[in-house]
Amino acid sequence: MAEAHPVGFQWVMEAKARGAKVIHVDPRFTRTSALADTFVPLRVGTDIAFLGGIINYVLSNELDFREYVVAYTNAATIVSDQYVDTDDLDGLFSGFDPETRTYDAESWQYATQEKDGGDRQDHETQRETASGMQHETHGMSVDDDVLRDETLQHPNCVYQVLKRHFSRYTPEVVAQTCGVSEEQFLEVCEAWTQNSTRDRTTALVYSVGWTQHSVGVQYIRTGAILQLLLGNMGRPGGGIMALRGHASIQGSTDIPTLFNLLPGYLPMPNAADHQSLEQWIDATRNPGAKGFWSKADAYSISMLKAWWGEHATADNDYCFDYLPRITGDHGTYRTVLDMIDGKVKGYFLLGQNPAVGSAHGKAQRLGMANLDWLVVRDLFEIESATFWKDSPEVATGEIVPEECRTEVFLLPAASHVEKEGTFTQTHRMLQWREKAVEPPGDCRSELWFFFHLGRMIRERLAGSTDERDRPLLELTWDYPLLGETQDPDAEAVLKEINGYDVATGRPLSTFTEMETDGSTAGGCWIYTGVMKDGVNQAARRKPGRDQDWVAAEWGWTWPANRRTLYNRASADPEGRPWSERKAYVWWDEEQQRWAGHDVPDFEVTKPPSYRPDPGVDGIDGIAGDDPFIMQGDGKGGLYVPQGLLDGPLPTHYEPVESPFRNPIYGQQANPTRKEYPRQDNRMNPSPPEHGSEVFPYVFTTSRLTEHHTAGGMSRYVARLAELQPEMFIEVSPELAGERGLENGGWCHVVTARAAIEARVLVTERMTPLRVEGRTVHQVWLPYHWGTGGLVTGDSANDLLGISLDPNVLIQESKVGTCDVLPGRRPTGRAVLDLVTTYQERAGILGDRTVPIVTTGPGAAGDDEGDPTGGGGGAS
Amino acid sequence: MAKVNLGWPVLRQLLGSDVLGRGVAARSKQTDATTARTETADRVAKSVCPYCAVGCGQQVFVKDEQVIQIEGDPDSPVSRGRLCPKGSASKNLVTSELRQTKVRYRRPFGTEWEDLDLDVAMEMIADRVVKARNDTWQDLDDQGHKVRRAMGIASLGGATLDNEENYLIKKLFTAMGAIQIENQARI
Amino acid sequence: MSWTISENSFWGPLDPAADAGYDEDRPKRKGFFTDTSICIGCKACEVACKEWNDVPADHFDMTATSYDNSHSLNANQWRHVAFIEQPKRLGDQDPGLRGTAGSVDLGMPAMGPQGSESPEDKPDFRWLMSSDVCKHCTHAACLDVCPTGSLFRTEFGTVVVQDDICNGCGYCVPACPYGVIERRKSPDGAKNVGIAQKCTLCYDRLDAGKVPACAQACPTQSIQYGDVEELRERANKRVETLHEAGVMDARLYGNDPHDGVGGAGAFFLLLDEPEVYGFPPDPVVTTKDLPAMFNRATAAAATLLAGAALAFLGRRG
Questions:
Q1: What percent of chain A has a predicted confidence (pLDDT) above 90?
Q2: Which residues 144-163 of chain C have a CB within 8 Å of chain B?
Q3: Total Cβ atoms within 10 A of residue C3
Q4: Using a CB-CB distance cutoff of 8 angstroms, which residues of chain A are in contact with residue B98?
Q5: CA-based Rg of chain B, rounded to a whole angstrom?
Q6: Does A705 score more than 60 pLDDT?
Q7: What is the pLDDT of residues A184-219, one digit of tens each?
Q8: One-character DSSP codes across B114-179
């Protein structure tokens, strides 16, 4: 956190000065570790084992916050007796199909719901469309006849299921798996549990490298389970904080430039399942379910009204058919491989530098070299604009400029001070930026570019009677244009996002004003309220020193300017603060409403004593003591029967590339992961497959304080470039000795994809770990460099292959295996030869079947490939 | 300057309180006229740091339509006026000599950049989008389901952009049937 | 003819702005207290300083000494963050590292034994970071030797180069006991090449009531700006707090008005001996004996006109 979010770290230091204990768990001793009370070095890719061990410690010592757990989580809910755990199936859950490597989740459901609680889509489709998480974002569908045992003794209640599931994660197993000493592990367990009470809360902070694993979603789930068990969710000083890495990456998820989502986490319609407006809406609202997603019809129809205005009517299903349909995986990695295969004509890059920033840099660059046209919009001449003349593939002869057909437009972009608009940062806060100056020369905002591109496309199609052009021609696309450059008025766009009453144009104040009859329009329902009363709430800047500590009058936080989500949980079931010290939101008996320091995340006049009548659904179905109002049962999900493709509970799987056999289960790695088995995407072998010894070391990558992501905003900036001027690698003194590496000298790192070179920084901050009785060396690389800018170097992301988390299709880029050799890498074609030599030695050069399913019937043994695994290597 | 003023410090030294000539007697006119350039700025824009997602407040000082200083906004309850090295380098970012301010064009099989007028570039891009959309248009998928889309157009980026920009990007691409629209959140 | 030179004008405790002729309306002496125990080594201070003061970037080489790529304080580096990786513990911190014996000499400055010989016995480690800056000495030799009057004492008690006066003679460079001040040699085309360079404590910002750029940026407030008197009290309390917390290494550097430079306007809380951070252990103002030399000179030249003597001193030759 000190490393990549230094200004946020001031609050950690302030907490520390007030007596908070800071524990830092990381593969490498960083600037955060330097200021922590305890640093725990961990083997990369073993976080679930580590946190699972803490969960086991909590459960086996009954240290959970029992009153919170019983009332606010699904701990008491009874799970189907058909459910069989990984504990009994050697790392697989019940319902696994080794052919498709997916689950039938029927047996995961709550008792009595096995049939109707199942998923509308099968898991294979969900994996293809990254839609598995729909239930996570849209709430589980839970009937009110689920069985509960509030004594938590029923053998199939979630609490007991959890207890059995994590019972394997003993301190010894944690030590064996993670390379952490038992003493240190227990110290963390004690600190975490002792600091999680009525009077005290513990915060879990992660950076989004956690998502970049083949089990990334389950990493975060493990954190959520632990924080729920300890009563740390929805309470001040608690929670799980995701430190996101780009100014508006939260905003670009809320208003998603993502293939599977529409604004406000509405799903992109799927061709097979969402053939009608009703089917599409029902996929979100789950008819009969409880909670706020029950109003998804109002949110969805208001969005269609915002886009197609007067053309969107009840008669034409509000132009629902104007939405294109997804049919499978259309994620960025699939798309790049399609580029290599010649299926994509044109590509826009908007402030993004995949030639350096995405996994498998070579695939990215070869994809771009095989387009009809490419539009790059950036502040600088980044590598993704110059791949045709100076990429590593030009040096190897894989890209020959005279033979590369891609037409490239590099359009200079306006910087953050040359346009106005809002960012949504990691705390879900929208902050408006004022425009300081006009952009220089040809520089323009994306708002300008896309507005005018849309205008010009519409001009070209004007008069068309082709049905396919109607969505474009009938699109609401008439924003006021300002100034010499004719920039659209960003605030007018924000007003549309906020939503308005169609008849009067009055901005809506809250999403509860959205209607299903087309009388309201609104581009992103969760942002409704940002223009409350016609005032740009995101532009509010009442100084922090003139406000209380919640500072509710600075910017605007979705939803409804609520700063802490699920804050109903900061009060006990009767609505009283859990303790005076941790009072945040409470039921004011006199006023008969919720009150407190923050906007209550609850219907403000619904008393704690409220109980819905049987059969009541929607918002009224949520009881007065159910704080998790977006969930179908109002409960925090310790166990997740729906929505996760790789299991209802987190399980330790080895990274796709690992030098170790999974010490906990026969199943080696995530069996449901998304793979692209191709010759140009070879993964290094891992046990039980032979050849893993060819890549004996583990590497991980991350950021330096002095640079930013793929370097597009730092390597071209002298003041930053000089602070970390060269690509380097951090190695322990032990590994330096083993491989003959010299501090300040050069070495090169080899995987099945690439060989890159870096200067050597030998440091005690890297430490070998003892895992499964042997020593493992880990190395660390920053991923900021490329061929452009003031300081250049090889790109760490070139080392990676493409292998994805099945739930969200995010790549495993925080862990891989490699070899490390002294000296500089070969140049020209010789570097390809070196990589080929390694592929050959590892036995992955020719046809190969990767053992993905490594337990159960038909699984690969320790000596043979898996005939049914299908994937990972050559096809 | 120094020579012209030489007599004066001595005189000040002789007659004043700074007998050693190390303080008031040594001040040059330029020193006396010193003021922070932020004091004479034409205006100050309230902004937000463009790097990570902490969301630190920034003040952007402008003089003669040039950015002359970017520093932390002490009013911000998020950052209390502080900035990390990246945030502190924001002026360098927006005023860097390496900023691309002209459209660059690389024709197919070209070996060098060429100049291109922005208006021309926009027309060319609009033509190409329309063509790629037509060339790769699908009304139905192979199972006969309605899809109304064009798989020939893809986009990546958004996490460094404004909400309003992402909104128009998603709205336009969706309306034209382009679905391979992605950003850093998938990476 | 008579003049008053305080008996402490060259040595010992002194209010330097008063001694430099500023009247009683002058502001309180300003300075930095840099608490290295909360420095996260982010280098925001280096960048904020360069941005405000237009100090050029001129070196793009990796030094391979931890994360220190700005080498030292110099003409183009008015703030410099040192990084020290040490086989020592930071108070009660559990550094967690449990490697086997080290096998490569990192060349890092360290007090005490380097590493440990036996495997599985390397528990001690800490990573120290510290942002160095001009000390703005109470008795500033750079100022005392400056023949042009370019270096002067401000009303805030700080020491500043007037670049419109400096002739680049360089006398100040060897005079500084810390090796801070330096003439700018590069890069080509940079402003003020040849002129002496160092921290001004953002004299122009102070004049406008603003905080120096580095202190304003510092994310953890490791760099604290304020009245020196108050900062000294704060520093003493901080040392006490750290000692109570078991960080017995905490000590102050440059805060004592009785030290060799009469106390620094920019002083530090360190967690090890000064040498570890690259500070001289016991700096002494190089012009300490100037008054004695001057007295001998005046005795020998008793018949000279007072004005000539004054001119001599005024030019501080």
A1: 91
A2: 144, 148-155, 160, 162
A3: 12
A4: 380-381, 716, 789-790
A5: 28
A6: yes
A7: 999 999 999 999 999 999 999 999 999 999 999 999
A8: EE--HHHHHHHHHHHHHHHHHHTEEEE-TTS-EEEEETTEEEE--TTS-HHHHHHHHHHHHHHT--
**Which of A257, A405, A415 lies closest to B155 in CB terms?**
A257
Q: What is the mean pLDDT of residues A620-626?
A: 95
Q: Rounded to the nearest 5 degrees, what angle is found at the Cα of B138, between the Cα atoms of B134 and B144?
A: 160
**Which of C56, C82, C85 lies closest to C69, judged by CA?**
C82
Within 13 Å and on the Cβ side, how many CA atoms surround A817? Answer: 25
- CA-to-CA distance for B16 and A602, rounded, in angstroms? 72
Buried b (16+ CB within 10 A) or exposed e, C180-207: bbbbbeeeeebebbebbbbbbbbbbbbb
Average pLDDT of the segment spanning A121-131: 81
- pLDDT surpassing 80 at residue A444: yes
Note the ipTM here: 0.96
700-759 of A, contacting C, C-beta below 8 A: 704-706, 718-726, 728, 732-734, 736-737, 741-744, 759
Domains and CATH numbers, chain B: 2-32 (no CATH), 37-95 (2.20.25.90), 104-186 (no CATH)
Q: Is A2 an 8 Å CB contact of chain C? A: yes
Least Cα distance to A270 among A317, A324, A322 occurs for A324
Instruction: Name residue, tokens 């003597």.
Output: C309
Q: Taking 80 as the threshold, does the pLDDT of residue C303 lie above it?
A: no
C62: nearest CB among A33, A718, A725? A725
A696: amino acid identity, one letter: P
Question: Does residue C266 surpass a pLDDT of 70?
Answer: yes
Of B56, B96, B186, the CB nearest to A716: B96
pLDDT surpassing 70 at residue A771: yes
Please indicate if any CB of chain B lies within 8 Å of the CB of A475.
yes
Tokens representing B169 are 């990007």
CB-based contact (8 Å) between C40 and chain A? yes
Find out whether B69 and B82 touch, Cβ atoms under 8 Å: no
Inter-residue contact C151 to C172 (CB < 8 Å): yes
Decide if pLDDT at B34 tops 50: yes
Contact A93, A204 (CB under 8 A): no
Q: What share of chain C is helix, strand, coil (3-state, %, to 5)?
A: 25, 15, 60
Q: The dihedral of CA A33, A34, A36, A39: what is its sign?
A: positive
CATH 2.40.40.20 fits A674-842, yes or no: yes
Give the pLDDT score at C110: 42
Min Cα distance B74 → chain A (Å) is: 8
Of the pLDDT bands very low, low, confident and very high (cuts 50, 70, 90), residue B8 is low
> What is the architecture, at CATH level 2, of domain A21-243?
3-Layer(aba) Sandwich (3.40)
Pairing of strands B146-150, B137-140: antiparallel
Q: Which residue of B lies nearest to A812 if distances are taken between CA atoms? A: B187
Residues of C in contact with B83 (CB under 8 A): 44, 48, 217, 219
Amino acid at the residue A68: Y
Mean pLDDT to the nearest integer, B10-20? 74
pLDDT > 70: what percent of chain A? 96
Q: Residue C176: which residues within 8 A CB-CB, separation 6 or more? A: C141, C142, C286
Question: Encoding tokens for residue A13?
Answer: 């230091």
Q: Where are the domains of chain A?
A: 21-243, 251-324+490-538, 674-842
Token pair of B175 as six digits: 């309306």
Chains that touch C (3 or more CB pairs under 8 A): A, B
Query: 0.90 cut: is pTM over it?
Result: yes
Distance in angstroms between the alpha carbons of the first and the last residue of chain C: 21
Q: How far apart (Å, rounded) are the C-alpha atoms in residues A131 and A123?
A: 9
C42 vs A722: CB contact, 8 Å cut-off?
no
